Amino acid sequence: MATLAAQSGAAAYTLNPMAHPHLLKAVALQAGVSLATVDRVVHQRPGVRAHTVRRVQQAVAELERQSAQVGLQGRKFMLDVVVQAPSRFASVVRDALERELPLLHPAIFRARYHLSEALPVAELVATLDKIAARGSHGVLLKAPNDTRVVAAVARLAAKGIPVVTLVTDLPGSERLAYAGMDNQAAGRTAAYLLGQWLGSDSRAGVLVSLSSIRFRGEEEREAAFTEALQQQYPNLHKVDASEGLGLHAATAAVVGKCLELHPEVSAVYSIGGANAAILQAFSDADRICKVFIGHDLDADNLPLLRTGQLSAVLHHDLQHDVRMACLQIMRAHGVGPQQALHTLSAVQVVTPVNLPAG
Question: CA within 20 to 30 Å of 294's CA: 58, 119, 132, 213, which one?
Answer without folding.
Answer: 119
